[in-house]
From TrEMBL:
InterPro entries registered for this protein in UniProt: ArnR1-like_HTH (IPR038723), WH-like_DNA-bd_sf (IPR036388), WH_DNA-bd_sf (IPR036390)
Pfam family, one: HTH_45
Protein name as catalogued: Putative transcriptional regulator
Domain ArnR1-like winged helix-turn-helix per the UniProt entry, residue ranges: 18-95
Species: Nitrosopumilus adriaticus
Length: 109
């Protein structure tokens, strides 16, 4: 009985952390950027690459379009504002990783 409880606790701790809204936006935008060389980008292709349900993907895509990060003329397309968000997010993420290495790793030594 006790081993079953421990096993369930371990399964819960090994789950992936939930993505923040900003991480989801970043993920969608980076996939759109990767696919930008294609003539037509289908929403389903991006949704699958982002590993999201279609409902959640659609909701987030609408939000990105409202914020003018994604355009939807004939096909999905990342805007200049969307590319800027990718660049800024990458810089912030790199900075946070560096801070973690500089300060968190030093403390654990």
């Amino acid at each position: 009985m006790e081993s079953l409880v421990n096993k369930k606790k371990q399964e819960k701790t090994h789950r992936k952390a939930r993505r923040s809204k900003l991480e989801i936006y970043y993920n969608i935008l980076t996939e759109l950027k990767k696919e930008s060389n294609l003539e037509q980008i289908k929403p389903t292709r991006i949704q699958q690459k982002c590993n999201m349900s279609y409902d959640k993907f659609s909701k987030n895509l609408l939000e990105l379009q409202k914020r003018k990060l994604v355009a939807d003329d004939q096909s999905l397309k990342i805007t200049d504002k969307g590319i800027q968000l990718i660049n800024d997010y990458s810089k912030i993420n790199d900075f946070l990783e560096k801070m973690k290495l500089d300060y968190i790793e030093e403390e654990s030594k």
